[in-house]
Design goal:
With 238 residues, the chain is α/β, with parallel strands linked by helices. Strands 3-2-1-4-5 form a 5-stranded parallel sheet, with helices on both faces. The radius of gyration is 17 Å and the shape is globular. Bound molecules: zinc ion.
Length: 238
Protein backbone atom coordinates (compact mmCIF):
# COMPACT_ATOMS: atom_id res chain seq x y z
CA UNK A 1 0.00 0.00 0.00
CA UNK A 2 1.07 3.61 0.25
CA UNK A 3 3.39 5.13 2.84
CA UNK A 4 1.90 8.11 4.66
CA UNK A 5 5.34 9.63 5.29
CA UNK A 6 6.40 9.41 1.66
CA UNK A 7 5.79 12.00 -1.05
CA UNK A 8 6.14 12.46 -4.77
CA UNK A 9 6.87 16.04 -5.82
CA UNK A 10 6.01 17.36 -9.29
CA UNK A 11 9.38 18.94 -9.93
CA UNK A 12 9.90 20.98 -13.09
CA UNK A 13 13.01 22.85 -11.99
CA UNK A 14 11.15 26.16 -11.62
CA UNK A 15 10.93 28.43 -8.58
CA UNK A 16 7.60 27.06 -7.38
CA UNK A 17 8.38 23.38 -7.66
CA UNK A 18 11.83 23.88 -6.10
CA UNK A 19 10.15 25.52 -3.09
CA UNK A 20 7.63 22.65 -2.97
CA UNK A 21 10.47 20.13 -3.00
CA UNK A 22 12.16 21.81 -0.02
CA UNK A 23 8.77 21.97 1.73
CA UNK A 24 8.29 18.22 1.24
CA UNK A 25 11.86 17.38 2.30
CA UNK A 26 11.24 19.36 5.47
CA UNK A 27 8.27 17.21 6.54
CA UNK A 28 8.34 13.79 4.86
CA UNK A 29 10.78 10.95 5.40
CA UNK A 30 11.02 9.81 1.82
CA UNK A 31 10.65 12.16 -1.13
CA UNK A 32 10.84 11.29 -4.82
CA UNK A 33 10.59 13.71 -7.75
CA UNK A 34 8.96 13.55 -11.17
CA UNK A 35 9.40 15.80 -14.21
CA UNK A 36 7.51 15.86 -17.50
CA UNK A 37 8.95 16.35 -20.97
CA UNK A 38 6.10 17.58 -23.21
CA UNK A 39 7.96 19.51 -25.85
CA UNK A 40 8.04 22.74 -23.84
CA UNK A 41 10.09 25.59 -25.29
CA UNK A 42 11.64 26.09 -21.89
CA UNK A 43 12.98 22.50 -21.71
CA UNK A 44 16.07 24.08 -20.13
CA UNK A 45 14.18 23.83 -16.85
CA UNK A 46 14.47 20.04 -17.05
CA UNK A 47 18.25 20.35 -17.30
CA UNK A 48 18.33 22.43 -14.09
CA UNK A 49 16.54 19.73 -12.10
CA UNK A 50 19.56 17.62 -11.16
CA UNK A 51 21.58 20.73 -10.25
CA UNK A 52 18.80 21.81 -7.88
CA UNK A 53 18.50 18.34 -6.34
CA UNK A 54 22.27 18.35 -5.72
CA UNK A 55 22.07 21.86 -4.27
CA UNK A 56 19.31 20.89 -1.82
CA UNK A 57 21.40 17.91 -0.64
CA UNK A 58 24.33 20.24 0.00
CA UNK A 59 22.10 22.62 1.96
CA UNK A 60 20.84 20.11 4.48
CA UNK A 61 22.04 16.59 5.42
CA UNK A 62 18.54 15.58 6.56
CA UNK A 63 17.13 16.55 3.17
CA UNK A 64 19.93 14.58 1.52
CA UNK A 65 18.98 11.45 3.46
CA UNK A 66 15.31 11.87 2.51
CA UNK A 67 15.69 12.63 -1.19
CA UNK A 68 15.02 9.52 -3.27
CA UNK A 69 14.67 8.66 -6.93
CA UNK A 70 14.03 11.13 -9.73
CA UNK A 71 11.67 10.14 -12.55
CA UNK A 72 11.06 11.69 -15.95
CA UNK A 73 7.89 10.96 -17.92
CA UNK A 74 7.77 11.59 -21.66
CA UNK A 75 4.50 13.29 -22.62
CA UNK A 76 5.27 14.45 -26.14
CA UNK A 77 1.64 13.81 -27.09
CA UNK A 78 0.54 16.68 -24.82
CA UNK A 79 2.81 19.12 -26.65
CA UNK A 80 1.72 17.78 -30.04
CA UNK A 81 -1.95 18.27 -29.19
CA UNK A 82 -1.73 21.73 -27.72
CA UNK A 83 -1.39 24.77 -29.92
CA UNK A 84 0.15 27.09 -27.34
CA UNK A 85 2.97 29.56 -26.96
CA UNK A 86 4.67 27.19 -24.52
CA UNK A 87 5.12 24.50 -27.14
CA UNK A 88 5.31 26.52 -30.37
CA UNK A 89 7.43 29.36 -31.54
CA UNK A 90 4.79 32.12 -31.39
CA UNK A 91 4.60 35.34 -29.39
CA UNK A 92 3.16 35.14 -25.88
CA UNK A 93 -0.09 37.08 -25.59
CA UNK A 94 -3.72 37.01 -24.51
CA UNK A 95 -6.44 35.04 -26.28
CA UNK A 96 -10.06 36.11 -26.82
CA UNK A 97 -11.02 33.68 -24.02
CA UNK A 98 -9.14 35.89 -21.53
CA UNK A 99 -6.52 33.19 -21.00
CA UNK A 100 -2.88 33.67 -22.02
CA UNK A 101 -1.84 31.61 -25.04
CA UNK A 102 0.67 29.82 -22.80
CA UNK A 103 -2.22 27.74 -21.45
CA UNK A 104 -1.74 24.06 -22.26
CA UNK A 105 -5.27 22.67 -21.86
CA UNK A 106 -5.51 20.13 -19.07
CA UNK A 107 -1.78 20.10 -18.41
CA UNK A 108 -2.00 19.83 -14.64
CA UNK A 109 -4.77 17.24 -14.85
CA UNK A 110 -2.56 15.09 -17.07
CA UNK A 111 0.52 15.67 -14.89
CA UNK A 112 -1.27 14.80 -11.65
CA UNK A 113 -2.87 11.71 -13.17
CA UNK A 114 0.48 10.39 -14.37
CA UNK A 115 2.04 11.35 -11.04
CA UNK A 116 -0.66 9.36 -9.21
CA UNK A 117 -0.01 6.31 -11.42
CA UNK A 118 3.69 6.60 -10.52
CA UNK A 119 2.94 7.18 -6.82
CA UNK A 120 0.73 4.08 -6.87
CA UNK A 121 3.58 1.97 -8.17
CA UNK A 122 6.14 3.53 -5.80
CA UNK A 123 3.92 3.34 -2.69
CA UNK A 124 3.88 7.11 -2.08
CA UNK A 125 0.73 8.60 -0.56
CA UNK A 126 1.35 12.32 -0.83
CA UNK A 127 1.56 14.07 -4.18
CA UNK A 128 2.90 17.62 -3.98
CA UNK A 129 2.46 20.25 -6.69
CA UNK A 130 3.15 23.98 -6.99
CA UNK A 131 -0.29 24.94 -8.31
CA UNK A 132 -1.34 28.35 -7.11
CA UNK A 133 -4.58 30.29 -7.38
CA UNK A 134 -3.34 33.57 -5.91
CA UNK A 135 -1.41 35.44 -8.58
CA UNK A 136 -1.55 32.83 -11.29
CA UNK A 137 -2.16 33.50 -14.95
CA UNK A 138 -5.80 32.40 -14.76
CA UNK A 139 -5.08 28.79 -15.66
CA UNK A 140 -8.25 26.92 -14.66
CA UNK A 141 -6.33 23.72 -13.90
CA UNK A 142 -4.40 25.53 -11.12
CA UNK A 143 -7.59 26.19 -9.18
CA UNK A 144 -8.02 24.64 -5.76
CA UNK A 145 -11.39 23.19 -6.80
CA UNK A 146 -9.82 21.49 -9.83
CA UNK A 147 -7.18 19.86 -7.62
CA UNK A 148 -9.73 18.78 -5.00
CA UNK A 149 -12.02 17.30 -7.65
CA UNK A 150 -9.10 15.46 -9.21
CA UNK A 151 -8.08 14.05 -5.83
CA UNK A 152 -11.54 12.52 -5.46
CA UNK A 153 -11.46 11.12 -9.02
CA UNK A 154 -7.97 9.63 -8.63
CA UNK A 155 -8.78 8.03 -5.29
CA UNK A 156 -11.97 6.51 -6.65
CA UNK A 157 -10.33 5.39 -9.88
CA UNK A 158 -7.21 3.91 -8.29
CA UNK A 159 -8.71 2.77 -4.99
CA UNK A 160 -6.05 4.56 -2.94
CA UNK A 161 -6.02 7.39 -0.44
CA UNK A 162 -3.71 9.88 -2.10
CA UNK A 163 -3.61 13.45 -0.88
CA UNK A 164 -2.79 16.12 -3.44
CA UNK A 165 -0.88 18.79 -1.53
CA UNK A 166 -0.45 22.31 -2.87
CA UNK A 167 1.51 24.35 -0.33
CA UNK A 168 1.63 27.42 -2.59
CA UNK A 169 -2.10 27.53 -3.39
CA UNK A 170 -2.84 30.68 -1.37
CA UNK A 171 0.59 32.32 -1.50
CA UNK A 172 1.61 35.10 -3.86
CA UNK A 173 5.08 35.14 -5.43
CA UNK A 174 6.59 37.24 -2.63
CA UNK A 175 5.20 34.74 -0.10
CA UNK A 176 6.78 31.90 -2.08
CA UNK A 177 10.21 33.55 -1.81
CA UNK A 178 9.51 34.04 1.90
CA UNK A 179 8.65 30.36 2.31
CA UNK A 180 11.93 29.37 0.66
CA UNK A 181 13.76 31.63 3.10
CA UNK A 182 11.97 30.02 6.07
CA UNK A 183 12.79 26.53 4.85
CA UNK A 184 16.46 26.96 4.02
CA UNK A 185 17.58 30.50 4.79
CA UNK A 186 19.56 32.74 2.46
CA UNK A 187 21.30 29.73 0.91
CA UNK A 188 17.95 28.34 -0.21
CA UNK A 189 16.97 31.69 -1.76
CA UNK A 190 20.34 31.82 -3.48
CA UNK A 191 19.91 28.29 -4.87
CA UNK A 192 16.54 29.27 -6.35
CA UNK A 193 17.92 32.49 -7.83
CA UNK A 194 20.92 30.73 -9.33
CA UNK A 195 19.57 27.39 -10.52
CA UNK A 196 15.77 27.37 -10.82
CA UNK A 197 14.28 28.28 -14.16
CA UNK A 198 11.00 30.13 -14.73
CA UNK A 199 11.25 31.96 -18.07
CA UNK A 200 8.72 30.74 -20.65
CA UNK A 201 11.14 31.48 -23.48
CA UNK A 202 13.89 29.33 -21.99
CA UNK A 203 16.31 32.29 -21.76
CA UNK A 204 19.22 31.94 -19.34
CA UNK A 205 21.50 34.61 -20.72
CA UNK A 206 21.19 37.52 -18.33
CA UNK A 207 21.48 37.22 -14.54
CA UNK A 208 19.05 39.51 -12.69
CA UNK A 209 18.79 39.81 -8.90
CA UNK A 210 15.85 37.36 -9.09
CA UNK A 211 17.62 34.89 -11.40
CA UNK A 212 17.99 34.23 -15.13
CA UNK A 213 15.39 34.94 -17.79
CA UNK A 214 14.22 37.26 -20.55
CA UNK A 215 12.76 39.59 -17.90
CA UNK A 216 9.62 40.42 -19.86
CA UNK A 217 7.54 37.25 -20.40
CA UNK A 218 4.65 36.80 -17.90
CA UNK A 219 6.58 34.17 -15.90
CA UNK A 220 9.67 36.37 -15.57
CA UNK A 221 7.53 39.41 -14.71
CA UNK A 222 5.75 37.59 -11.87
CA UNK A 223 8.98 36.15 -10.50
CA UNK A 224 10.80 39.49 -10.63
CA UNK A 225 7.94 41.44 -9.06
CA UNK A 226 7.61 38.91 -6.21
CA UNK A 227 11.34 38.94 -5.58
CA UNK A 228 11.47 42.73 -5.36
CA UNK A 229 8.70 42.81 -2.76
CA UNK A 230 10.34 39.99 -0.81
CA UNK A 231 13.81 41.59 -0.98
CA UNK A 232 12.50 45.00 0.13
CA UNK A 233 10.88 43.47 3.23
CA UNK A 234 13.95 41.38 3.97
CA UNK A 235 16.15 44.48 3.91
CA UNK A 236 13.69 46.42 6.08
CA UNK A 237 13.69 43.77 8.82
CA UNK A 238 17.48 43.38 9.05
ZN1 LIG B 1 11.03 35.21 -19.54
Amino acid sequence: MTDDRAALVLFSGGQDSTTCLAWALDRYERVETVGFAYGQRHAIELAQRSRIRDGLCELNPVWKARLGDDHTIELEALGALSDTALTRNVAIGMEASGLPNTFVPGRNIVFLTFAAALAYRRGLRRIVGGMCETDFSGYPDCRDDTIKALQVALNLGMDRRFTLETPLMWLDKADTWRLAQELGGDAMVELIVEESHTCYLGERGERHDWGYGCGTCPACALRAQGFRRFAAERTATR
